[in-house]
Amino acid sequence: MLLLPHIMRILYRLKRSIFQPLARVVWKLFCNIFKIDINSRKSQKSILQGLLFSLLCISLSLFSIQFLNIFQVNTSIAATTIVPPLSAHKSEIVDNTGKVVVLRGINWFGMEVDTHAPHGLWVRDYKQMLAHIKSLGYNIIRLPYSVEAMKSSHISGVDFSIGANSELYGKTPLEVMDLVIQEAHRQGLLILLDSHCLKDGHISEVWYGDGFTEEDWIDTWILLAKRYKNQPNVIGADLKNEPHGRASWGTDDISTDWRLAVQKAGDKILDINPDWLIVVEGVEKNVPNQIQHGYFWGANLEGVREYPVHLKKPSKLVYSPHEYGGSQVFWFEDSDFPNNLYQRWEIGFNYIHRQHIAPILVGEFGGYHVDTKSKEGIWQGKFVDYIAQNNLSFAYWCWNPNSKGTGGVLQDDWRTVNDSKQALLNKILP
Fold this sequence. Notes:
eight-stranded parallel sheet; 13 strands; 38% helix; 2 domains; three-stranded antiparallel sheet; alpha/beta; TIM Barrel; disordered N terminus
């Protein structure tokens, strides 16, 4: 109450300094238009009151519209919030409120090679990287790691002299993963953990080898399931990256049948952390009665037709093909390219979505070319359209510009976005 006289004096000065001169200008303009005696005070007072009242009403109306627009935007943002844990319902992924969600992600690699830390930290701070990813519309990061890294005590590839990433100094790879996950949570990003390699930088054919056993693979998943059980933005386990070679599906050979390994590891993870999604990639070949051939590693999910995965909690199962193009793809040379692509995708994986067997999350796709003339560019454009038409979840490969064979969303300076690539992905981003 003591401030009221001061506020009144300020308003009075504003009236005299701003509104009165404005009123005089409006009055002169009005008189010129309507041929009114400019010295008529009676007319001046009544007309100006009406004019100023009209201006006030218009201003309030515009402000109200703007306020409603802001409110609607904020409401829209709130409406897109994903509430973990996530589950599978027929062909959709749903959050804890039952709302259908689409995971729109990107891969950020580095923890699965000898650096044992996400790449690019020799240029930028990891918090800045995460904020940049979020700003482009992605809502999840597929975070690759190696079993070797999880057993290691050292990281490299982080330049602490740039005045960034000080929190990572002296940390183990697992502690770096902790900090990245925690910061992602603060910034509203989900995390899908990806067992990308057993040995740093080498993708094994099956879930053991390169000096590591099946127990090493499963024990690492158990470690992570326990560690992140109460970290809500870690939403699942991509059990193994790109089974290929002798990996099979539906053969009942315990040494190669990926489906059997999935059921064993998946159930053990769910015993510890029942909230996680179990994300299952395909194989390359060795599927009884498969229709097509020439699949990329991890792309072949034909086996689900006759030999689906059975978990203790079926509502946690998501299938995850990988899809690539390139000069070695024989179906790019077919006379009906690119129209032949749709049948390949339907037979290879999307029947799972279309028949409401389970949700699909495309765990990787990408390439250098996004133009409309090269075959890789045409393929990538068609695949983005296909993802949009089927409302599929995805994680693009990748954020890193140093990915051989694909490049990334970032350019070589690790700061600038590849505009043409991001423009393509904007078709499937919010």
